[in-house]
Specification:
By secondary structure, the protein is an alpha+beta fold. Helices cover about 25% and strands about 30% of the residues. Helix 1 packs across helix 2.
Length: about 80
């Protein structure tokens, strides 16, 4: 699944266009590398999103094409 779609489906970022713009601006890293929105997300990837003043890191636990609100939280684990 594309990175921008994963960020939207998992509800890390609310809109896919915002996720796409964040990737284009170099604000999203996967496994320590800045990647494009077309990056193919895999289980075990570590995603760091820098928006606003801070940044948040996540580990991909599951990749689902569609997720309900309750299932979206199970797709990743936040890393402190």
């Amino acid at each position: 699944m594309r990175l921008d779609k994963y960020l939207k489906v998992s509800r890390i970022i609310k809109r896919r266009t915002v996720a796409n713009e964040a990737c284009d601006a170099g604000r999203v890293e996967v496994n320590g590398r800045v990647v494009r929105a077309s990056y193919d997300v895999k289980v075990g990837d570590k995603i760091t999103v820098s928006l606003g003043q801070g940044s948040r890191s996540f580990e991909v636990l599951e990749v689902l094409e569609h997720a309900l609100k309750d299932d979206a939280a199970k797709m990743y684990k936040e890393i402190k």
